[in-house]
Structures are given as C-alpha cells and as structure tokens.
Amino acid sequence: MPKRTPNHRLVKRSRTYSVDEVATLFGSHRNTVRHWLNNGLRTIDNRRPLLVHGADLADFLKDRRTKSKHPCAPGQIYCLRCRVPRTPAGKAVAYRALTADRGDLVGMCGACGCRLFRRVSLAKLRAGAGDLAVAFTDVEGHIGKHPYPSLNCDFEKEPTTDG
Ligand SMILES: [Zn+2]
C-alpha cells in the first residue's frame, strides 16, 4: 500500500463524513482514520456512527502537515493561532474527560492567550503532559483543584452554569 499524504483539498468543508467515507475519500484504511480520531480529529459528538465535519477534517489534515514540521515535545500543546507548539501558561493544564479513557488537555497559550487543546488517551496522558501540572475535571468540567492562581484569561470568564 502506498503511503500518501492525504490531500485536504479533497474534503468538502460543508458536509459531514463517516469514518468509512473518510477512508474511501483518501483510499486509506479505516484504522488510519481511527488513528486520526485518537490524535485530535474532532467528531460532531460521541454518538455512533461517528461523524466528522468536513471543515474539521480539512483543518486537521492541514495542521497535521504543519505539525509534522513542528513536533510537540512533552508538556507542549500546538497553538492554532501561533502555529507552533507552546508550553501552556503557568505550566498547568486541565484534563477534561470525554470518555473513561480519553479526554482533552486544555490550557492557555502563554504567548497569545489563545486556548490550547490536545486530545489524549488517559494511557498517554503522562507522556504527553511531561512536567505540566494536570488538574482533573469531572464530567461537568468542574476543576477540583484550581491550577490557575491569578490568570486573567478566557478560562475564568467562561460560564460553567446557565444560571
Ligand atoms: Zn498561541
């Protein structure tokens, strides 16, 4: 099987794709697509069949191409705005569980103040987080131990309840 770089221009940004459709589009194996899902490709929700927004897919593949030139060291998260891996502000991140064994590392870019996301499996969390302080959040996103002493960022402003 030839290993090609998937061409993100094949993706129609306005439609949604199932795992099978993505695999067919690029002539890839479904496991390749699953690998992408484990490495940050976002799905619309966690319901099956898993669906991916074309725009997310195109952006993911573009980022992947850029990231391969700028690999993240442990403790770094790729900043979409700076377009380089960044160490989160305060060397602290929150782990927001999505499933029993997978979640998002969420931090703030120390350079531009943008939010940093990195999809990780719980098994690889330690390797990915390096020496960062990781706060585990419950399903509703409440942080047990607040790791951001006095940061004036979006984190603080985001409402956690509706009332
Ligand atoms: Zn940044």
Number of DSSP helical runs: 5
Overall 3D shape: globular
Order of helices and strands: EHHEHEEEEEHEH
Oligomer: single chain
Instruction: For the record, give the distance between the C-alpha atoms at the N and C termini, rounded to a whole number.
Output: 55 Å
Write down how many β-strands occur, each being a DSSP E stretch of 2 or more residues. Answer: 8
User: What composes the largest sheet?
Assistant: 4 strands, mixed
The number of domains is 2
Poorly predicted sequence stretches spanning 5 or more consecutive residues = 145-163
Structural class of the helix and strand makeup?
Answer: alpha+beta
> What helical percentage do the residues reach?
10-25%
Compute the average pLDDT: 81
What Rg, in angstroms, do the CA atoms define? Answer: 17 Å
Share in β-strands: 15-25%
Which small molecules are bound?
zinc ion
How are the strands of the largest sheet arranged? 7-6-5-8
Explain what you see.
β6 and β7 form a beta hairpin. α1 packs across α2. The chain has five helices and eight strands. The protein has two domains: 8-67, Winged helix-like DNA-binding domain superfamily/Winged helix DNA-binding domain (Arc Repressor Mutant, subunit A, Orthogonal Bundle); 77-157, no CATH class. It is of the alpha+beta class. The chain is globular. The chain is 25% helix and 23% strand. The strands form three sheets. A four-stranded mixed β-sheet has the order 7-6-5-8. It binds zinc ion. InterPro entries: DNA-bd_dom_put_sf (IPR009061).
